[in-house]
């Protein structure tokens, strides 16, 4: 029959070799031209997907229409043998196809090492945009650059489109150029080729499917091969062209690679710290982060812009209006979920959300929202940190001031006092350039996932340029006015007059935005970053920023009133403040700043409140001085000792054990109104965690957790939560009731799984006590027995790369010692 191009036909293995495996005998026969002409549909191709041999259709009268073949095993991959075999078949007659795709996704391989993704779990190829990566293709024959064509197809999202950047066609080129999707052959080995693939620094992040398309110049149709694995594309803070580029290596280690951090809470004078396991590299966390993006309303084409991504993450971390990750709850009733103060890790929360297919997890408050946001942003490649603002204002009417209203008798008007000052509030900073804003406003951007106020109809906040906040440029996006009010609004006191109108009686210019804190780079110390958010209090630059911002608020004339302020009131405490279970003692200082004596009347009340500034009940209301008292001369002060007995607050406290002392009074000579609000908390004890013995990977160890009840009463329903990345999965330990002033001890047994410095974190939760937690540093090493039967060089390389030289059984000289178990 006349020669014709053979069509590729679908085949099936079913019935091809009934009852027996195909023969493996090598029978290589070179047919002459006459024999070729006699073939009827015979496959002249030595390699087929379903028939990897030289095969020949056999004439048969049976009803079995399945091809019957003689199996011819291809020669081994020895170059000479292989080429001798192939030279007998013209390349032009063998259609180019891909046998397999190796994405070179090993954690120890070049791709993940160079892209700083070797800490992620999973076998997908995890890479960062704007940087080359390599893949290896096995073909059915050697690649011929003159006749063969090859390109990659990368697709992400449900409806990939080239115009949207979600369907990427990667051509094969001779030279790679920056900021373009291109591939280049960098290595050939018979029928294998290695490609270096370049991605632009603006590429869409997310999960990409990979297809390799091949064709030859004489072919009418191309063939495709789908990779069994996917590519995960992340932002790249190591790439100068990426808008999230961060040029300090130590900061990249902290804000991208560090999976453990510190979150601060309390009050400005009683700053507490708790360890938080971000766990962005933990198994299932990257999958959860990608799931969050998919569940959002943002189209995949928007995932190339970190501003869009951060704004969506801010909305998706809370469950307020889009079935996001975490349900906020400030009621004090957490019976159908987990108390916010019991969490110490993002891992369990995100894995629950993923495994439930997007059912919001209960419950969280601001530090939990912030911890999860840090995890998600770092996981996606955006530098991020948790930030705590003490005395954080919540402006509800866009006045850019925090307003407190009194009636004619100087009693608080509760229904008007919608603004509040939180003892502390935790949000996030993320690092990126802002090409959508005027020059100079890139760098740290504030983003808040706690559902406080809506932004464009959705509970979210940011990203707002920290530089814009500092200078009072509240007209710039996103949500800059709200964050400015949190850190730098003035607290304005108003009194109602007899005609029902209000007059401004006092302003506190230093009432909010104190000790803005984050974990320091490379240590567990607290770093004060207040100077990034605001100029020095009282400076001319700070006043200009406040007055500039106020002009864009709902009360632009608030600073037009002049007031006499020559007497001031201040509240002080000793040390770190009162402890839970004891009397609370504070000192009230009344200072005379004038050159004349002053007589003052002062009243006080103390109320139990949530840390958000919402008061629940008044536990004490007294006149600090029933009769007017004198403060004689300039720069003199009078001290009044103030005490709140334990018996008066023991049954009234709510979460965080927070209280607010409100002072009000009047100066007789000038009619100046005095007003001051001071919040404080009753400190709780820490958990004491003691490791028992040395830590070795794969060897069981233990840790002792000790807690002493500080109250003279029984604690009901005590529950411990224990977790340590690389040590112990998060779990609960129900203890039950703990008697007054009694001590309880737990012993936790676990098997370390990862080398290097780790932290074991525990928390205690019950109705009477919250924010009780502890942490222990545990340095894991490898026992000598770990290397028995393993590749010592690989083991040493793992340790050397991770800089675990300070492990207890691993020294710089690579000496090993036997652990106690061996």
Automatic annotation (TrEMBL):
Coiled coil: none
Active-site residues annotated for this sequence: 366, 425, 448
Pfam families the UniProt entry points to: Transglut_C, Transglut_core, Transglut_N
Disordered: annotated span: 1-23
Domain Transglutaminase-like: 358-451
Cofactor note: Binds 1 Ca(2+) ion per subunit.
Enzyme Commission number, as recorded: 2.3.2.13
A GO term for molecular function: metal ion binding
Catalyzed reactions: L-glutaminyl-[protein] + L-lysyl-[protein] = [protein]-L-lysyl-N(6)-5-L-glutamyl-[protein] + NH4(+)
SUPFAM superfamilies with a match to the protein in the record: Cysteine proteinases, E set domains, Transglutaminase, two C-terminal domains
GO BP field: keratinization; nervous system development
Domain of life: Eukaryota
Keywords on record: Acyltransferase, Calcium, Keratinization, Lipoprotein, Membrane, Metal-binding, Palmitate, Phosphoprotein, Transferase
Membrane topology type: Lipid-anchor
Main location: membrane
Family: Belongs to the transglutaminase superfamily. Transglutaminase family.
Name the record gives this protein: Protein-glutamine gamma-glutamyltransferase K
Gene (UniProt): tgm1l1
């Amino acid at each position: 029959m006349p020669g014709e191009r053979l069509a590729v036909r679908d085949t099936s293995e079913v019935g091809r070799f009934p009852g027996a495996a195909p023969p493996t005998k090598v029978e290589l026969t070179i047919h002459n031209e006459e024999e070729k002409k006699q073939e009827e549909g015979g496959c002249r191709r030595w390699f087929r997907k379903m028939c990897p041999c030289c095969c020949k259709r056999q004439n048969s009268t049976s009803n079995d229409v399945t091809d019957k073949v003689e199996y011819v095993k291809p020669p081994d991959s020895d170059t000479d043998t292989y080429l001798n075999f192939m030279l007998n078949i013209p390349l032009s007659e063998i259609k180019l196809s891909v046998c397999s795709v190796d994405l070179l996704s090993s954690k120890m391989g070049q791709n993940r090492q160079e892209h700083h993704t070797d800490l992620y779990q999973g076998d997908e190829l995890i890479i960062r945009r704007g940087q080359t990566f390599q893949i290896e293709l096995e073909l059915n024959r050697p690649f011929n650059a003159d006749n063969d064509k090859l390109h990659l197809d990368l697709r992400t999202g449900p409806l990939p489109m080239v115009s949207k950047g979600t369907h990427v066609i990667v051509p094969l080129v001779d030279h790679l150029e920056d900021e373009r999707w291109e591939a280049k052959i960098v290595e050939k080995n018979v029928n294998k080729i290695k490609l270096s693939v370049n991605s632009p620094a603006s590429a869409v992040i997310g999960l990409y499917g990979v297809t390799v398309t091949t064709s030859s110049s004489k072919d009418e149709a191309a063939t495709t091969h789908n990779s069994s694995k996917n590519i995960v594309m992340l932002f790249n803070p190591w790439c100068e062209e990426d808008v999230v580029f961060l040029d300090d290596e130590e900061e990249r280690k902290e804000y991208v690679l560090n999976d453990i951090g510190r979150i601060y809470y309390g009050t400005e004078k009683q700053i507490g710290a708790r360890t938080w396991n971000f766990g962005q590299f933990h198994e299932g966390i990257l999958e959860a982060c990608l799931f969050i993006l998919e569940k959002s309303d943002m189209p995949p084409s928007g995932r190339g812009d970190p501003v869009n991504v951060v704004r969506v993450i801010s909305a998706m971390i809370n469950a307020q209006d889009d079935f996001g990750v975490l349900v906020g709850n400030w009621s004090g009733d957490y019976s159908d979920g987990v108390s916010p103060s019991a969490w110490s890790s993002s891992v369990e929360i995100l894995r629950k959300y993923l495994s439930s297919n997007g059912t919001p997890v209960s419950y969280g408050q601001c530090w939990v929202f912030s911890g999860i946001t840090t995890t998600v942003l770092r996981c996606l490649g955006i530098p991020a940190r948790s930030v705590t603002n003490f005395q954080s204002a919540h402006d509800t009417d866009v006045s850019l001031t925090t307003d407190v209203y009194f009636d004619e008798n100087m009693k608080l008007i509760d229904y008007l006092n919608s603004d509040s000052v939180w003892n502390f509030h935790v949000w996030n900073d993320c690092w990126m350039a802002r090409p959508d804003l005027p020059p100079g406003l890139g760098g740290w951007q504030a983003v808040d996932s706690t559902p406080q106020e809506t932004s464009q109809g959705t509970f979210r906040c940011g990203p707002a340029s920290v530089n814009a906040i500092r200078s009072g440029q509240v007209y710039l996006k996103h949500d800059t006015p709200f964050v400015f009010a949190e850190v730098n609004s003035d607290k304005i006191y108003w009194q109602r007059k007899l005609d029902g109108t209000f007059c401004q009686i006092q302003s506190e210019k230093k009432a909010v935005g104190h000790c803005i804190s984050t974990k320091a780079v490379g240590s567990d110390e607290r770093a004060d970053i207040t100077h990034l958010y605001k100029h020095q209090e009282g400076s001319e630059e700070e006043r200009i920023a406040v007055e500039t911002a106020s002009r864009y608020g709902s009360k632009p004339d608030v600073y037009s009133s002049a007031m006499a302020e020559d007497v001031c009131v201040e509240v002080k405490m000793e040390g770190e403040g009162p402890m839970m279970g004891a009397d609370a003692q504070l000192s009230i200082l009344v200072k005379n700043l004038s050159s004349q004596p002053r007589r003052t009347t002062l009243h006080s009340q103390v109320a139990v409140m949530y840390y958000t500034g919402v008061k629940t009940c008044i536990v004490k209301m007294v006149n600090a001085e029933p009769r007017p008292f004198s403060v004689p001369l300039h720069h003199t002060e009078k001290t009044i000792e103030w005490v709140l007995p334990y018996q008066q607050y023991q049954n009234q406290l709510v979460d965080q054990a927070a209280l607010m002392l409100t002072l009000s009074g009047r100066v007789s000579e000038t009619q100046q109104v005095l007003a001051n609000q001071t919040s404080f908390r009753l400190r709780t004890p820490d958990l004491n965690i003691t490791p028992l013995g040395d830590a070795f990977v794969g060897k069981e160890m233990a840790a002792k957790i000790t807690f002493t009840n500080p109250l003279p009463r029984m604690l009901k329903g005590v529950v411990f939560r224990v977790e340590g990345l690389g040590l112990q999965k998060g779990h609960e330990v129900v203890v039950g009731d703990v008697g007054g002033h009694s001590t309880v001890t737990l012993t936790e047994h676990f098997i370390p799984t990862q080398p290097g410095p780790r932290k074991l974190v525990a928390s205690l939760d019950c109705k009477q006590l919250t924010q009780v937690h502890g942490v222990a540093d545990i340095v894991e090493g490898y026992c000598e027995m770990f290397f028995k039967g393993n590749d010592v060089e690989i083991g040493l390389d793992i340790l050397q790369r991770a800089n675990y030289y300070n492990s207890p059984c691993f020294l710089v000289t690579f000496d090993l010692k036997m652990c106690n178990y061996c």
